[in-house]
Write a structure and sequence with these properties.
331 residues; 2 helices; mainly beta; 39% strand; seven-stranded mixed beta barrel
Length: 331
Amino acid sequence: MFRNFLFLVAFCGAFASCSTKQDLDVRESERAIRLGAGGVDETPRTKTVVNSLADLASAGVGDNIGICGVRVNTKTAEPVAGWGNVLPMDNVRTTGVSAADGAISWNGVYLYPLDDAYVKFCAYHPYASYEGNGRLRLDAPSTGKAPFLSFTLSGEDDIMYATPVVGRKDDAPKPLMFHHVLTQLTFEIIDDSGTLVGEKIQSIEVLDVNTSSTMNIETGALGTWGSKANLAVAGTADVEILSTSAQSVGRSIMLQPGQASFKVRVNTASLGSYTATIRPTSVGDNGSYETSFAAGRSYLISLRFDKTSELGALATVSEWLLMGYDEITIK
């Protein structure tokens, strides 16, 4: 980690002032780096796990953000600029985000350069060390190359990056605005005919999906995907279908964006397994029907059970915040 320190030895006598330490503290305080979070980029079409400043401040999120600050010679956050220079903040993990004003905290004090150069700040979630933990790792920056987050999804990871901001001692940076890079599915069960009332869902799985990739923490650009696997929707084990009314089931699952379809399997306790393919047919930002699941958007998947219908998929547009909806009818 690169830090700028100023060392000064002062001798105090009967005719000398002992204010040196105080002056040093004042100068360091003036140079201390402080950052704020503006929240999560949110439009009426977006709803994901972290969807507000309050969500960003929650445990496991606000204390799980990584920040890299690199010295730059410009006031603008130009892509690529600065990487390879000194890092006044070298992958620092946050300790919290204030839900009241977005102020970001961390352990220790980090200072702007002595010569008043600017610092470009990039932030990402979830935090990863350079050593990695087997599932998350940050690849260190090099000349002309920003750090990359290497990850393997569990289905519950909300991968985010913040729009870079620039600041210096006398020019505070703007708040960090975070963006989601994955797509999200949520599920509900509708049993109009009472076919499954009293039955238990053993699990809901999304089959044969890519789970590993990289993200440029400066631009949010994703790299090549791989590592196919079946991912289970958390919280769906032993869920009993209680009535014919719509019933939310499980937690949200985050997946690779840009996919034309996903294959979903519903496993029941005594009635076997059912598989269907879901495709988005909701309206995108350009006013046309979507042909792939978009990053930063959440899609509500209704699992509809009906004795008289064959297994299939039907998609309609929901006017709710999700703005993405797909319905599976299971015989």
